[in-house]
Every structure is written in C-alpha cells, then in structure tokens.
Amino acid sequence: MEQLLVFIRKEFFHIFRDRRTLLILFGLPVVQLLLFGFALSNEVKNIRLMIADNAGDVSSQELIAKIRASRYFILEEQLADYSEIEQKLKAGAIKGALIFPAGFGNDLSGAVQLQLIADGSDPNIAKTMFNYLNSILADYRQSKTTSLPDYRIEPEIRLLYNEEGSGSLGFIPGLMALILMIVCTALTSVAVVKEKETGTMEVLLVSPFKPAYVLLAKAIPYLLLSLLNFTLIVAMALLVLNVEVKGSLFLLFATSTLFIITCLSFGLLISNVTSSQQTALLISLMGMMLPTLIFTGFLLPIENMPGILQLISNLVPSRWYYLITKAIMLKGLGIAYIWKETLVLSGMTVFLLGLAIKKFSIRLQ
Amino acid sequence: MNEPVISCTGLTKRFGDFYAVDHITFDVYEGEIFGFLGANGAGKTTAMRMLCGLSLPTSGQARVAGFDVYTQTEAIKKNIGYMSQKFSLYENLTILENIEFYGGVYGVPRPELRARSRELVATLGLEREARKLVGELPLGWKQKLAFSVAVFHRPRIVFLDEPTGGVDPVTRRQFWDMIYEATTQGITVFVTTHYMDEAEYCNRITVMVDGRIEALDTPANLKKQHDAGNIEDVFYQLARQAKRTAD
Amino acid sequence: MKILFYLLQKEFRQIRRDKSILAMMFVMPLVQLVILPLAMDFDVRHINLALVDHDHSTFSRQLISKIEASGYFKPVSYTSTYQDALKHIERGTADLILEIPSGFERNLVREKSQQLGVSADAINGVKAGIGGSYLAQVIADFNAGIRVQFNPAPPPAGTIMLTVSNWYNPLGAYKYNVVPGVLVLLLTLIGGYMAALNIVREKENGTIEQINVTPIRKWQFILGKLIPFWVIGLLVFTVGLAVSWAVYGIFPKGSILLLYLFAMVYLMAVLGFGLLISTYSDTQVQAMFVAFFFMSIFMLMSGFFTSTDSMPAWSRTISNLTPITHFIRVDRMIILKGSGFNEVQKELYYLIGFALILNGWAIRNYRKTH
To answer: CA-CA distances (angstroms) from residue C370 to A271, B58, C366?
Structure first.
C-alpha cells in the first residue's frame, strides 16, 4: 500500500512539472467550454433577409414590422429584381429574399402569394428561415381576423426544461462529454507509453511491484485530476454559462466518475497496444476527435443517420454519458431513468479495463 | 603544419551567469587530428557548436577555414563537415539516398556524385545494403556511414562529436582507420571523445575542465609533463579539480 | 536552387515511405467524405409524439387521426395521464406531448372555444420549435374544418401563401453543404497537422542539427518542407473534388481556376500555421497537443457544423480570425453558387493576410543559430 502511494506521488510530480500537460488538462477544457458554450448552438439566428416590398402599403409594412420584431432576422429593405437578388446571394450578403407582390394589401381578403427565394447552399438556414416566416405569417393572419371566430381551438405551448428557450442548452452536457472524453483518454494514453519509451517501465517491472499496481498507480492520479477538472467544468457551466443542475449533484459526480474511469481505461488500453507516444496520441486525439464529435449526439442528430452509423454510435462512450448528464443536469431526473445508460457505461468500463490489463500482462511475458 | 585552419582567442559562451565555455584559446593546423577531451558537461560540445556556426559566441574571436564565426557562418558551413553525438542520417532513406542528399546539398556535381557514392559504398563493403533503409543497419555501420557522409564533400575540416559512443572496440578501430585515411586527403579532424585510448591517436589534445582549457599538447608531451604512464592518468589529474558536476 | 531540389527529393522519398502519413492522406479523406455527408442531416423528421386523450370523443379521435396522417409525427404512446406521457419525455422517447382535456368536444360545441395543451422537450430548442409549429398548423387546419362543419358559409378569410424556391439546391439536400466543407477540413489537417509533425520530427531525431551545419539556408529548408505538403494538399483537394463529383454529383459551378487559387493561398496559410506550431514545440507529442487544441477550435468555430451568423458578435470575431472560416465560406460559394472573383475577393485578401502573418511569424521564430 505504501509502495502504491510512493508511486502515485511520483506520477503527480511528473504531471505538475510538465506545463504543457497541465495546459491541456486544465486550459483546454476551460477555453473550449467557454468558447463553444457561448458560440455553438443549433439555433439559427441573425438571418440576413432582403425584403423586396413591391406593394409598399400599410399591410405589407405591418407584416415587415412583425418580421423585424422577431429576433431571427436582420432585414434589408430594397426593391430589387432577380438579377440583383442573385448577385447578393452569390456574394453571400443575404441568405434569402422575400418578395411582396404589388397590391399585397388589397388582395389580403382573397389569396395572396409571397415568394421566398432562399440560398439553398445552406439547407439548414434555408429550411429554418422558411419555417420562421411561416409561423410569423400564421400569426399575422390571425391578428388580421378582426373578430374572434367561433369554434376556436388554441394550442397552449409549454417549453419543458428550458423556459427561456436558450438555443445552446443541450450543447453544455454534450461539450462536457466531448471534452472529458478526449482529454482523459489522450493524457492516460500517453502516460504509460512514455515510461515504455524512456525505458523506465522496465525498471518498474523488475521492481517488487505488482504489474496491476503499475497500471493502478498510473490511473489514480489522472482520475483525481480529471475529477478536479470535471468540478472546474461544472463550476463554469453553473457560474459562467448559467446552466443549473436540476438533479442530484451527487448523482452527477458519481456517474461522471464512472465515465472518467471508462475514458481512463480506454486510454490505458491504447497505451498498452502502442509503442510510441506519437501513435498513442494519433489514435486518442486525432482518431477519436471526429467519432466523438459526430456520435455524441449533441452536434448532429443521430436519429437522422443511416442505420449502420446509428449502430456505430452505440460504441462511443460519450454518447451514453451525454444522455446521462442531460437527464441529470437539465431534466432533473434520478437514477431510475438512467440506470440503463449507466449499466452500458459500466459494461464498457469493465470490458476496456479488462482488455487493458490483459494486454499489459501479455506484454510482460 | 603551417597555416591554422581554426584559430580562436578568448572564445566564450555564457548562459546567464553560467560560463559553458570560458575564454578558450587555441589553433588547429591543417591536416591535424585535434582531440578535445573533457568530462560530461565540461563544455566540449558547446565549443564545437560555436565553431560550426550552430551557436553564436558571447565574446572572443574565432576563425574557421579563414572565416569569422560571427559574420561568415554560411561560408564556414560550406567548408566543414559535422557528425553529431546523436545519429543524424535519415533512417527512412536508403544509404545511397542519404549520400545523394548530403552530397547534393554541398554541391557535388551530379555525375561525380553518382560515381563517388558507388565507390564509397564499395569501400565500406555495403554494396548489398546500398538500397536498404539506414534505420535497419547496426549501430557500428551507421557511425561509419555517418562519418563517410560528413567527409563526402571533401571539407577542409570535419568536426566529430563523440563519434564512437556505444560502438564495439573492433569497429572503433576501423573508425579511426577511416579518420587517418581522411587526413591523408588533407582534411583536418576536430574530434571530441572521452575514450582515453582514442586520445592517443590524436596529434594534439586539449583537456577541458569547467569550460576552460587546462592542457594542450601532444599526447607524449602531456604524459611527460604530468609524469603519467598514459593519457587516462593525465585526465584524472586534471579532471579531479572540476567543480561542476556532470550534467 | 539545386539545394532546394535535393531537399524536395529527400522529402518526397521520406513521405512515400511513411506509412502513417500515407494512411492519413488516403484513408482520412475517404472516411470523412463518406461518413460526414451521411451523418450530417439536420432535417427535423420523426417528431415523436405522446398523446394524452382525456376526452375520448369523436372530435378528439378525429384530431388524433389528422395528426397521424400529417406525416410529421410519429405517435409513440397513448396514455391516460399527463404524468405517464411525461415519462416518455423524460426517457427521451418522446419530443412532444399533446394533451386533449376532458370535455374538449363539449366545450368546443357549447363555449365555441377550447384550449389544447402542448408540452415540448425544449432542450433541443430547434426540434421543440419546429415540432410545436407543425402541430399548431395541423390543429389550425383541423379547426378550420370544424368551422366549416358548423358554419357552412363562413366569412371569406384571406389566405397568405408562402412559396419558397431554394436556389442552388432545390431539394435542400445537406450533402451540398457538407461536401465542400469536408474538402476544406482535409486541407486544414494536412497543412496544419502533418507539416507541423514533420518538421518537429527532424528536431526530435536530431537530423535538424545536421541540416544546420550544411550550407542549406533557413528559407531553403522551410520551402523544402512546405512545398511537398503544398503539393500533396492540392493533390488531395483534386482527389476530393473528383470524389465529390463522382459520388455526390457535385461539380463546381464557378471557376475551377478561382477555386484552386483559393486552395493554394489557403494551404500557404495553414502551412504557415503548422510551421509556427513546429517552431514552438520540441517534440512531436507537444506539437500534437498544441495542434489539436487549435484544430478543434478551428473546426468547431468555422461554420462547418453550425452557422457562424447565429453566433454572438464576439464569437463571430474569433471565428473570423481563423483562416478555415473564410475558405469554407468561399469554397461553398464557388462550388455551389458559382460566385465569381468580385464576390469573393475580400476573402482572398483575408487569406493572403493570414498566409503572410503566419508565415512571417513562423520564419522569425525559426532560428538556425541560437
């Protein structure tokens, strides 16, 4: 036991003397969470829309004012023909143009047609723009009907978990999963290989130290540091990004510890099957970056992916952790709702750790 | 032994208040094998790096092949060869490709390059390995190859920084044969080592202690001055005064 | 000039032998070009709906079947209490709850007005918003039907139709947006990452020491490093263009020459970035960490995954300070919209600026003599 402590202390010295590792361990999560937490969201805002008001009457101006009042558009009012619109679209100055027919106000009692020309090169913006405008039009039509009609059904919409309708709320647990996954895996994957490369591993293995202890001693400092790191991330999410943890903080820490252990095991496995730090990092940083980004589920909707990709996404630990943190932090749910995901993560951990230990002892013979 | 090809006066390199090289003064003459002895951390490598133009001196004068180490480093580089402590040929190039690269970089004309590299491979007895990657060669052969590449462009001076580290005695012997062979072509050899038997092969040796030159003469004279049976004893007598710990 | 030739010959020989570089050059583009367009589809389909019908009337059943027929929704449960429906939201199996109150039909007939409860899982705000508005549309349609049923001659109500034409991409397929972006990611990884590692490898192996005592000048060494990756980058870009044409049917609408001009300048900028990283790192491991740090920021802030317009102003500034943002923008403009030089020249000056600054900084920082 005492040996283990000595060993663990040595590991801490290593980590604290290497400023670049510390930068990655604490700097990268802070910078990325702050930067991405504010910058990234699936919401589409600030759409630059050109309004060609060929009617120029009271009604058209009313509708335009309504569009302006929504927080989604930046309007540019200008009478323009198709070639001018095309020019602006090509230059990327606008994302679409809404064309009012002459006599818009006069025809309102009958059927009028508004035309939207959208920049289809960004389908997400084009489709969202169309949806936004459609609901504004529906509102407008409603407001135009002077007297309340009979037989009126009114849907009353309640936004659960996110009353303010913040567009980046779901991104916070996603970013936490992404950052923890990459940082924990990469740092541990380097730790063991480094000792192999410098030859100190041989020295450790001839010492009266059980091989499993060597792995354990490697992992424990990173576990502690990762927990510290996680605390930092949660603190920032709470204080700077104004996300509140609705569920049990204890449960959040418990499941996060499990996830960190999953990542550490994966890192140990990588370092046990590679022989150089470069290769280990190539796998854990570059190799893992894209799958984690794609399959965690916060950035891209997994449900829209082809079946084979959906299957693959099940193998990515951060996907399960994302579901867990989303449930605890944002929905305030308890263990009853996340035991399945927790079980999957536990299974992955046991599998990865077992494999790591097995590969480690094979190397000994 | 008429004209000095290397001459330095009061050459100094300071890092902060640490004198890595402390006012060293010496001349090296054409065709000489000049040995540089010293414990680890005595300043040998730093001194050599200044002479090669890899590092700017803090103060003092030095000329290498007639060029100034402050202002004419590029001209110096055309006239020297260098072999560093660390093996520094490209491991993922073949023997011939390495020779072609370094020869080409020093401006050896292409037809001559081809003929001489074949010749060199033959002298080293590496014809069969010529198209093998250098990384696959045993260390001894790598070192011999590195030396041959360092003198391939027939420089006026070749600098060797602990060239025989980790090499077996037989290969070391062969290595020194190659050095002698190079001097017959008029190449001056500047070599650092801590193998004392190698020091005996040099025409003149200097012993560096704590960044300063403590002795400079032929091996025979040094032994006489210090009343010692071999260079090793001379070295011990001088190195014992060192205050710096190695590395 | 001769020296440069030997340097280039050496570099190409080494690259040819390096399995990991070759793998990155050929496997990565393939994987990215195949997976990303498949994975990136932001359409909101399959909105999972949990239904709670307290009324069990003809009207409520009619409304439900109208919703089912609309095609937007997939009913996942019919429960009798809101609490049960909420469980589906909590488990993530439903996105919306529609609660039809008891007395729905009776109130509608007697009081001539009735409210419906719609609850949305707003963690995914986009889905909640779109799902809510689809549901509102279906309900409005149903409502109009009811009015006609009770009052066959309604006062003429005006309708406003919004027709949309998606230029450059009439079907609104996401691949048109994704594929040009992937091409830019590829160039970024090759330029910023592989070049940086390559230079640091010479430092780590000590071969740079040997180079430094030869008559090779600083600029020759740097050019000898940059040119091969510049050429490889353009090669990969060409392969990428060919694949996007052959597999996805995307052929640049604009001038290919202009596209290559941008690719060339962009590569210079990212190569400068790679060079800069290499001057600050002594080992490949350090270089990888630093490169990863910046690459992840570049990638996520570039507008490849999310729109830069939607970012707050300060993030947009950061986004504009990374070269990749500009090239992704231009790449999509030239390939999809056929934009010409006039429309994209501002971005070209940006990229030239980046190339000059990054390379200048890197060269200043790269010291041959210490």
So the answer is: 36, 11, 10
Contact indicator for A268, A190 with CB cutoff of 8 Å: no
Cβ <8 Å between A282 and C143: no
Cβ-based neighbours of A269, under 8 Å, separated by 6 or more:
A352, A353, A355, A356, A359
Q: In three state form, how does the secondary structure of B147-171 look? A: HHHHHCCCCCEEEEECCCCCCCHHH
CA–CA dist A267, A270 (Å, integer): 5
Looking at residue A365, its pLDDT comes to: 46
**CA gap A228, A146 in Å, rounded:** 61
Among C3, C14, C214, the residue with its CB nearest the CB of B90 is C14
- Chain A contact partners (≥3 CB pairs within 8 A): C
Tally of residues, chain C? 370
Cα separation, C177 vs C183, whole angstroms: 11
Cβ separation B92–C18 shorter than 8 A: yes
Residue to mutate among C250, C306, C316, C339, with most A CBs inside 10 A, is C306
Rg (CA), chain B: 18
Strands B204-209 and B212-217: antiparallel
Chains that touch C (3 or more CB pairs under 8 A): A, B
**Interface-testing mutation among C310, C327, C334, with chain A (most A C-beta atoms within 10 A):** C310
A to B contact (≥3 Cβ pairs closer than 8 Å): no
- The structure tokens 């002698």 sit at B180
Q: Is the dihedral angle over the CA atoms B95, B101, B107, B111 positive or is it negative?
A: positive
Confidence band of C154 (pLDDT split at 50, 70, 90): low
In this structure, the number of other CB atoms found within 10 A of the CB of residue C361 comes to 15
List strand residue ranges (DSSP E) for chain C, in order.
Answer: 47-53, 73-79, 96-100, 113-121, 159-167
Interchain CB contacts (distance < 8 Å): A and C: 330
Query: Is the Cβ of C42 closer than 8 Å to some Cβ of chain A?
Result: yes
Q: Mean pLDDT throughout B12-30? A: 92
The pLDDT tens digits of the residues spanning C241-294 come to 999 999 999 999 999 999 999 999 999 999 999 999 998 888 888 888 888 889
Smallest Cβ–Cβ distance between C206 and the set B88, B100, B104 belongs to B88
- Say how far apart CA A274 and CA A280 lie, in whole Å: 6
For chain A, how long is the longest CA-to-CA vector? Answer: 94
Among chain A residues, the shortest Cα distance to C173 is held by: A123
Q: Which tokens go with A215?
A: 């792995």
The answer to whether residues B101 and B58 touch, using CB atoms and an 8 Å cutoff, is: no
Nearest to C135 among A138, A155, A286 (CB): A155
- The answer to whether C123 faces chain A, any CB pair under 8 Å, is yes
Which contacts (CB < 8 Å, 24+ apart) does range C60-65 have?
C60/C100, C60/C104, C60/C105, C62/C142, C63/C100, C63/C139, C63/C142, C64/C100
Helix (H) or strand (E) holding A100: strand A96-100
Query: Best interface-test mutation with B: which of C213, C216, C221 has the largest number of B CBs within 10 A?
Result: C213
Q: Report chain C residues touching chain B, CB-CB < 8 A.
A: 2-3, 5-7, 9-10, 13-14, 17-18, 205-207, 209-210, 212-217, 369-370
Which stretch of DSSP H or E encloses residue C134?
helix C125-150
pLDDT at C368 over 70: no
Residue with tokens 């008559």: C215
- What stretch of H or E contains C17? helix C2-17
